[in-house]
Amino acid sequence: MALPGRAQVVVIGGGVVGCSVAYHLARRGVTDVAVIEQRKLTHGSTWHAAGLIGQLRGTASLTGLIRASVATYAGLEARTGYATGWRAAGSLRVAASEARWAELRRMAALGTSFGLEVSLLSPGDAKELFPLLNDSGLHGAVYLPSDGYADPSQLTQSLAAGARAAGVRIIQDCRVQGFAGSDGRTDAGRITAVLTERGPVECETVVNATGMWGAATARMAGAGIAVTAVEHQYVVTERRPDISADLPTLRDPDARVYLKPESGALVVGGWEQGTRAPWLLPPGGATPRTPRLEIPADFGPELFSPDHERFAPLAEATANRIPAFGELGIQSWINGPIPFTPDGEPLIGRADEVANLFHCCGFSAGIAGAGGAGAAVANWIAEGDPGLDLAGLDPRRFGPRYCAPDLLAKSAVDAYGSYYSLSDSEGKR
Ligand SMILES: Cc1cc2nc3c(=O)[nH]c(=O)nc-3n(C[C@H](O)[C@H](O)[C@H](O)COP(=O)(O)OP(=O)(O)OC[C@H]3O[C@@H](n4cnc5c(N)ncnc54)[C@H](O)[C@@H]3O)c2cc1C
What pLDDT score does 284 carry? Predict the structure, then answer.
């Protein structure tokens, strides 16, 4: 598609988040929108996500955000005519310790107060819903019938199709290289045009939906935000006839793992200790004293090599909880970059330094969050208010200190490693 010379709103990034923002803008009647993607749609983190969507989070706003995603995804295929892979299969979260069980009971009470249907189950009841489960040593489980999973690529294409049908222009293979400002500078005031490798696009509002590249995009506008990428892995087993697509998703936070059924196989991922921040580089070049953190602009759908050793403790714990996993061979292994902030939660809100720039990036659970985040940012642009309390996700919650490469990488690796740990796991996917 030809690059327009002008658009009311430019959304940078064609992952699930950017496409959701465009879709929701169009639903609110804002159709003079251009989505600009440097590669192809989904070619950042989105295509390789496992696709689990869990709504039980530690705050009303995060829960509200993901409930809004579920509401978007449930009706999307009927609205656009494009499949999403959305399946409301339900979810189980099991407790293998008394402390975890206390945490789950607290989360269940919170979830109920946020309006979710949540049940507390005995280990035996959990096993009935998930017959492959070894329930020995379990204290109980939480069940959410309205949780589920989607196919991340199909979901994104469906959102894009809905946006396109309303008039949104989606431009692929076009990199954004900078911004022009009304004061003649590119680093302050208001952005008046987005500068791409194919030419400028004048605009009124810009959305930074560039995932793990969010900090690089912000820097082009003279803004600083704390987001980077770390490695995240999951495996897909061989198929077995008793692995039904009707199984709920399963999270065993004490084992640090999550799991979903996929075409008769099991998808098992988790939060290993000591993951890598792959693009933290030693000092050199223009920064002879400090490390550099540069996510390559031309990185696309590529993956990293599997790290078997790092995944081994998770595989062992899964084989204990789901003995079938230990009996099955691994059919494929995904190790991809996942956006991460110092607290593992996304950055959604106005840029401090630039009046007409919104950040909506840094999602560690962007498949779960995109539907609601897109709706919130679209509300903000169309009506001046996101419609949800997003104060806890304000990009300004991390000061400039956290934008320093070494601290940003370290805090992202630490936040990743403690994603399901007892003190932190309330509210993680
Ligand atoms: C192995 C793995 C499993 C995962 N499983 C789950 C899961 O089960 N559930 C879940 O909710 N999340 C999961 N995630 C996380 C999920 O993948 C991300 O949160 C989500 O894809 C982020 O979407 P996004 O649109 O923000 O980013 P992206 O998909 O990365 O999109 C950003 C886009 O911006 C483009 N871009 C960047 N810079 C520019 C520029 N200058 N000009 C133009 N375009 C630009 C990029 O090319 C990219 O396409 C998983 C991640 C991994 C790695």
Answer: 77
Q: How far is the CA of 18 from the centre of ligand 1 (A)?
A: 10
More confident call, 182 vs 419:
419
| 72, 210, 228: residue to mutate for ligand 1 pocket, most atoms within 8 A of CB | 210
In a domain, 426, yes or no: no
The verdict on residue 334 lying in a domain is yes
Residues with C-beta less than 6 Å from any ligand 1 atom: 12-18, 36-39, 43-46, 48-52, 175-176, 209-213, 217, 232, 234, 269, 334, 336-339, 361, 363-368, 429
Give 137 Cα–ligand 1 centroid separation in angstroms.
36
Q: How confident is the model at residue 426 (pLDDT cuts 50, 70, 90)?
A: low
Q: What is the CATH classification number for the domain harbouring 288? A: 3.50.50.60
pLDDT at position 376, please? 98
Q: How far is the CA of 126 from the centre of ligand 1 (A)?
A: 32
Burial of 184 (0-12, 13-18, 19+ CB in 10 A): exposed
Look at residue 428 in the predicted model and tell me its pLDDT: 62
Domain span holding position 142:
6-417
Q: Kind and range of the H or E element at 10? A: strand 6-12
Q: Three-state secondary structure along 234-256?
A: EEEECCCCCCCCCCCEEEEHHHC
- Residue type at 309 in one-letter notation: E
Helix, strand or coil, per DSSP, at residue 23 = helix
With respect to residue 213, please indicate whether it lies within any of the assigned structural domains.
Answer: yes
- Number of compact structural domains in the chain: 1
pLDDT, mean of residues 16-36: 98
pLDDT digits 0-9 by tens, 316-346: 999 999 999 999 999 999 999 999 999 999 9
In a domain, 427, yes or no: no
